[in-house]
Design a protein that fits this description.
Layout (H helix, E strand, L loop, with lengths): L4 H11 L6 E3 L6 H14 L1 E6 L4 H15 L2 E6 L2 E5 L15
Parallel strand pairs: 1-2
Antiparallel strand pairs: 2-4, 3-4
Length: 100
């Protein structure tokens, strides 16, 4: 079930104070980087990823590739930092996203 605009706004306020947990370096999106993003999404549900790519097109491509490969929702993107959310149904204390 996709998240609503109201839920997305709430998640933006939650992600604002977070630091990036994964930093994509000069080698770009590799399998180990995607594996780390997967681990972070399972553990935290809401994460920030910093993409240090050379130009804007590379960053756009990398951010979209992360979204596609992890099946996470892109919550926010500012410059080279993107925020992703993916609900983990097995988490003991799931994040309570307000419903409409």
């Amino acid at each position: 079930m996709p998240i609503t605009d109201k839920q997305k706004r709430w998640l933006k306020t939650q992600v604002h104070h977070l630091k990036p947990v994964v930093i994509v370096g000069q080698h770009g999106i590799t399998e180990p980087v995607l594996a780390e993003i997967e681990v972070a999404l399972v553990h935290h549900e809401l994460i920030k990823v910093r993409v240090n790519a050379g130009d804007r097109d590379e960053r756009e491509t990398s951010i979209e590739l992360i979204r596609e490969r992890t099946q996470a929702d892109l919550i926010n993107r500012i410059g080279n930092v993107a925020a992703y959310y993916r609900h983990n149904p097995k988490k003991r204390d799931p994040m309570q996203i307000p419903t409409l």
